[in-house]
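Hey, resending since the last one bounced:
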Amino acid sequence: MQHDGRDNVISRSLWPFGFALAAAAFLVGLVLSWWIVAIGGGAALVIGALWITDTIRRQHPHLLEETEGHRIDAPAVAPARPAPAGPTLSRSRFLEASTLGLGAVMGGALTVPAVGFMIAPAFEQQRHGDANLGPLDNFPEGTYMVTTFMLDKRKGDVSRRTAYIRYNGLLQEQPSFTIVSNRCAHLGCPVQPSGPISEQPKLIETSNGEVTLREANPAGFSCPCHGGAYDAEGNRTAGPPVRALDRYEYSIRGGELYLGKMYSVGTVHGTGAHARIRKFTLAAPGQHVDDWEWWLYPLQPPH
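The structure tokens again:
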């Protein structure tokens, strides 16, 4: 085989860039969506295989004896020495491949655990059981109760939350509640009732721990941080918030009120038990959910 002095020249290739983009999509998907993980991982495997095949074709053309059923003829120049019986691997290339392989194994052994410890907590124990807020008798009809509770008793005060809960009476013979989160839809600051609050809290003990109840009669809610304002149903009325206040799902079990997961709301139409609400997947503060700007936020991180 004739050598032209170019055997050791590394040809330019776009495969590394494609593989890097696929790997980046895989890592981004770990934060945003498992669909992106699948697409990025699959693309990385395909591009990696094509990259390896292209590298072998460039550096060892003699290994590909036939292409589409046609034999590739050797150059017309007579070889200076007898051709080997089969493909050979020189000592230098063996040492090079061994070094790269050991480096990849060592790099993976050091990187995978570190990345796992960084990413895994974001996906562990993200969900919690419904929070027990006690008997329905603690929520008088037509009055908001400033309710402070723990989402998870095992985590203690770090899971403590506040919600504004109003019993609306019966709707189709079932208790109806308006349960509004105190997280501002602008930047997540705690909103406050715009009205008097009872100075004497009522403390009750439930399976979720201690629950604090304070009676309030607000005309609406306001954020003291940036001036956001909401009406009594949680609709934005002024300031920088982009949507209504988030709400909680709820259920009634054995005469007690249980809070479920949160969801986002664009606009509430109507009041009390007869309000019409369109639910959206829980969105981060500042993100639109129901107007033309929602397409600027197509992906949500895990909550």
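The helical segments are 15-32, 34-59, 91-119.

Sorry for the duplicate.
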